[in-house]
Specification:
CATH topology of the largest domain: Beta-Lactamase
GO molecular function, one term: DNA binding
Structural class: alpha+beta
Organism: Lacisediminihabitans profunda
Pfam families: HTH_31, MLTR_LBD
CATH class of the largest domain: Alpha Beta
Distance between the termini: 53 Å
Strand order of the largest sheet: 2-1-5-4-3
CATH architecture of the largest domain: 2-Layer Sandwich
Domain HTH cro/C1-type: 37-87
Number of strands: 5
Number of helices: 13
Helix content: 40-55%
Largest sheet: 5 strands, antiparallel
Order of helices and strands: HHHHHHEEHHHHHHEEEH
Strand content: 5-15%
Shape: elongated
Protein name: Transcriptional regulator
Number of domains: 2
């Protein structure tokens, strides 16, 4: 197992173990826990492996854990489907390390561009495998980044990155009233992508830039959280539309692995829905925000 990637597997196991909440009965009696989560020995018993082997896994010293062992560990650690798949991706990268590569420039898929065109006054944008914003419709630009040139997404040198914006763009700190929650979700998505595409040199460079530029990113990245969801609601404050309860729905396509489209809506009949609809109509009529 490659030492760097083996350490990544171990760090994820250790962080996941610390998040497991023991059953209430286990906290009683004289042997109270001094650290959060379950002990290594307890995870090993639940997964059906030896304590010494599990310890070596956490310390990055054991190689070639089988898919069956990884599934058993996922169950013992109470991982969700996304977290389990992430563990398998980490282990796969560790057992078959490949040199970093510089993939070709991404373009939004034709299918996603058709969806953007069809949505018109519904805010939406297409994200790439590194969370670059590859395309957006007028409403999407007006909602998320009216302070940026809408043509920036078409220039690979100026194209905004959704994760960088969360951590480095002060407008996003003002936009997301639930900024911490959004930041954790953004890092979770980035973690999943980094394990899925472990040889992507540009993705690694992005993580490096954020690690140097943002203490908040370093803090959240160290937490090993994989909090991803295809739908989430955030409280936001828009300079024109005001405060909104914004539902962001993320759709993926097998046609372009790693790409996704984010569609923004609000609960029907609410003030948020009315404000979003008004913002969409304003952008379609050419109103400058």
């Amino acid at each position: 197992m490659h030492s760097r990637d083996a350490g990544t597997v171990g760090a994820f196991l250790a962080a996941s173990r610390a998040r497991v909440i023991p059953d209430a009965g286990e906290e009683r009696g004289p042997l109270r826990r001094r650290v959060p989560g379950l002990r290594r020995e307890e995870i090993a018993i639940l997964a059906g492996v030896s304590a010494s082997y599990y310890t070596r896994l956490e310390q990055g010293q054991a190689a070639n854990a089988s898919p069956q062992v990884l599934d058993a560990l996922a169950r013992a650690l109470r991982l969700g489907d996304v977290e389990r798949d992430h563990l398998h991706n980490l282990a796969r990268a560790a057992t078959r390390p490949l040199p970093f590569a510089d993939p070709p420039e991404e373009q939004a898929s034709a299918g996603f561009r058709e969806i953007l065109t069809g949505l018109q006054d519904t805010a939406a944008m297409v994200l790439g495998r590194r969370r670059d914003i590859l395309a957006w419709n007028r409403a999407g630009h007006a909602l998320f980044a009216p302070h940026l040139d809408p043509a920036d997404v078409d220039d690979s040198e100026r194209r905004p990155n959704a994760t960088e914006m969360i951590f480095l763009d002060p407008h996003m700190r003002e936009f997301y009233l639930d900024w911490e929650e959004k930041a954790i979700a953004s890092v979770g998505h980035l973690r999943v992508l980094s394990a899925r595409f472990p040889t992507d040199a540009r993705l690694l460079a992005l993580i490096g830039r954020l690690s140097v530029s943002s203490d908040d990113f370093v803090r959240i990245w160290a937490g090993q959280s994989i909090r991803t969801s295809s739908s989430a609601t955030y409280r936001v404050r828009h300079p024109v539309a005001g405060e909104l309860a914004l539902r962001q729905q993320l759709l993926t396509s097998a046609e372009t692995p790693g790409q996704s489209i984010v569609i923004c809506t609000a609960v029907e009949g609410t003030s948020s829905q009315h404000a979003l609809a008004l913002l969409g109509r304003m952008t379609q009529s050419g109103f400058a925000l």
